[in-house]
Amino acid sequence: MSFEPEKSSLMEKLYHSKLFEEINKSHQFIELFAKDYSDNGFQEEKFIKFGERFMSKNEIDNQFLIYHQIPFLSYKIMKDSMCIGGYVHQLATLVFKKSFCIVFNLNWTIKNDDNSITKRIKSVFPGCDFDFFTLNMRGIHLEYYDLKKKARKTSFKRRKYDNKPTPPKSNTESNVNIEREESGSSSLDCQILEEKSDDDEINIQEFSLNENESWCDSFWKSKRNLLLKNLMKHFNFTVQQKEKLSSVFATYLKYLVKKKLEELVNIKETEKTVNNYVYKMAIFMANKDSGKLLLKKILNGEISGKKLLEYKLGDFCEKKTSFATKEIIYNSELLNKPALQTFPCKKCATMHSKYDSCRRDD
Fold this sequence. Notes:
The protein is an all-alpha fold.
């Protein structure tokens, strides 16, 4: 009697069980992220780690995505990160597109037909105000690699220029070679530097621009943290509310600092002006009724970071109506229009102006 068929079936079962365990382990990061998001809300660093790992995986079981509602989570993050912009929003958009394609069994590595996919999205997310036709569904994996390449170039440039106390005096070949040897850059970084030097030389003006960018980033982040810290002394925010305020203030302060730096062309004056804005806003939101109303509108999503830029410095204070001012305006109107002045009449026992006829005479 032969037991080979039973052995082969047993081996297949073991193989499939091991394979299933491996799939579960490889997809565990999806479950952990979904749980952390439901407990703590959106956290930028955790999402970046999740998004990069998710985009780098070639095989993902759609059942995991459906069970943990990843398309809906990524859609929400994509919407919420629109005010942040940059790498986070682009990564969230790619995660949403890839998860959607996997759930609906679409081959996300093939250049799909945009129109048919966007129609499907509209049917899944009815009544949504997001314009899905702006999404480019073609070549999602290529789009992700381009995004990573740009991020790598940006990080390389920051490492190259941020920590230098003075701009380079000359850009000769020998100086460039010395810089490469000292920095210990990889071959990829060297290629990026060569491409840059071929296009245009690194001069003092370019260095100052990079220096200003790094200063802007560190300055607005410190002001955002300070503003949040002051508001948290007066209000008990939830984790989601903190994340909401953080993203709105990030957008607001980022553009405010750049705007004031362009207007004033002086770092010290920019610091002074922005500090004044942050100070006034913190006091206004903490102590004034209209400031608390503004804070409530921000938390409810009625006011975005860009909308907040429309507020002037004088708007961060409560408008008070002065009785004396009203009296001055009223008296000036009476002087300009004497017909408005009325007097008690002894004849007819009524109030009328001097120029009106008396009722007794009528």
